[in-house]
Every structure is written in C-alpha cells, then in structure tokens.
C-alpha cells in the first residue's frame, strides 16, 4: 500500500428487521444485497404504478422500469447512508420509499420538480443569461439562498468525520427549504427581474442536489 494512503477503521451498527432483530431471511439466513435491491425495485414499481393510475397518467414501460430501478436502489443506499454509521437502524421498505421525510424519493422528487419548471416554462437553465443578479426579497428566498452556500462546509465536515449522514441531513434540509420557497414564491408567473432570479435559484438548487446525491452514489431523475 502506498505511503500516501491512510487507512481508517470505520465502525458501523447493525441493520435490523422491523421485529428489532438482525435482518435475516425467514429461514434465518443472511439476506443477500441483490435480493434487497430487487425487492426495493419491486416496491418502487408498485408505488409508481399506483401513482400513475391515481393521476390517470400514461408512461412507457421503459420509463417505468428506469424510475423503479433508480428509486428502488437509491432508496436502499440512502436509507443506509442517512443513518449515523455507528448506530443500529430498522430496515423498512415503506419508510425508505416514502415520498415524504428524509428519503431518497423525497430528494429525487425535489430535483424532478425543478426540472418540471423548466419544461413548463420552456426554460433552458444553461441559457438564462450572463451576470444575473440574484434578488432575495422573500424570507423563503433568503433561507434557500443562504443554505445553498453551506454545501462546501458540509462536504468538508463529511470528509473530516467520515459521517455521510451529515450530507444526507444537508440535502434533506435543502429540499425542504426549496419546497417552502416553491410554495411561497411564484417562479414562472413572476415579473422580471424576479423571474430570472428565481429560475437561477431553482437551477442552483438542482445542481446542488445532483452533486450531493452523486457523492452518495445516487443518480437523479428528470421525471418521476
């Protein structure tokens, strides 16, 4: 091993079933990761199909397969990384696949919502213009703008402590702040220069979510 490589022992807790015991199959054997992932994908697919039916929305089989696989695998990854690594936690498909709370689907949905804004307004985030000034007048705008600046500090903290749940906490809080901003501050219906300023704020949020999730090994979805 090269002298430049530093090896650090990282302790971690147990993954337990909903009965509070160490996660195992019904026969008492250790559950294989591929089986957990396949089951998570099946759960995600059922949830998506139910949502499409309730929304009376039609999507291709390729779309359904891609979303189910991305959401299912992301949910398992995020559920593990969002816990303090030294603590035990309960493995629950229902909780990790929920669209609310500190879950991968919640983050993915926040990202997809931002992309839907660009589609609805026929906006290209990469061509908003040069030297745009971000105008932060509303409380939710200021909260979101200030929080976006904390990404670098958060990543440094994760690197120092080897606690990826700190990044998960940041992304969860960012998603909540964006949702509050979106609910209280019209974007596409605003007048200029507020409209472009808010679009840029949306774009910065999306890029931050995408970067943060990629550091956790999670891919984003343009639509869900």
From TrEMBL:
UniProt family annotation: Belongs to the class-I aminoacyl-tRNA synthetase family.
Instruction: Show the Pfam families listed in the entry.
Output: DALR_1, tRNA-synt_1d
Q: In this protein, which residues make up the domain named DALR anticodon binding?
A: 107-224
Give the main localization category: cytoplasm
PANTHER family tied to this protein? ARGININE--TRNA LIGASE, CYTOPLASMIC, ARGINYL-TRNA SYNTHETASE
Q: Does the keyword Nucleotide-binding apply?
A: yes
Where in or outside the cell?
Cytoplasm
Alphabetically, the GO molecular function entries are:
arginine-tRNA ligase activity; ATP binding
Q: Which Gene3D superfamilies match?
A: HUPs, Isoleucyl-tRNA Synthetase, Domain 1
Q: Which UniProt keywords apply?
A: Aminoacyl-tRNA synthetase, ATP-binding, Cytoplasm, Ligase, Nucleotide-binding, Protein biosynthesis
Manganese is among the record's keywords: no
- Name-wise, this protein is arginine--tRNA ligase
Q: So what EC number does this one have?
A: 6.1.1.19
